[in-house]
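Lab manual, section 2.4: Encoding a predicted structure.

Procedure: take the sequence of the chain (150 residues), apply the prediction step described in section 2.3, and record the output as structure tokens. A sample record is shown.
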Amino acid sequence: MVKWVSCRGDDIAEADDIRWTDAAWKPRTRGVKIGEHDIEGKVEFCDREWVHLRVTSCTTRPDVGWTVESFKKGELLRRRRATLQRGKLQRMTWTDESARAMVASAHFRPETSAPDAPKAPPRAAQSHRRGGGARRGYARKSRPKKQLKP
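Recorded output:
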């Protein structure tokens, strides 16, 4: 029998099955909520701040007049622990909770880093030039030369 228990974002461990409610926002606009996603997923990697998980199922509840695309099964998502906690986070209980305690404990395994992402090449140091303004698109004004009186 599957049993879901509510948990905090700090209680998530690798290999947990979790579910939560995530807000759906209008594309290219901030602050316009158009529905909700009910997402279930399996945690693949987690560190102090981020949780990487693979979607196992997703259902959507759009607001009246909107359409919301659901996440595809197998899609990889990355969420902050605090964001997950806001959405009524639940996790599925393990058959052996003592094994989960070993996996979740920081004392039994070292802190690992997230998968490597491509990094931008380092930039060369730039010297500060004063005046000119040519970088901003301003043309330098020529000043008339002062003539000395005899």
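Check your result against the sample. DSSP finds two helices and six strands in the chain.
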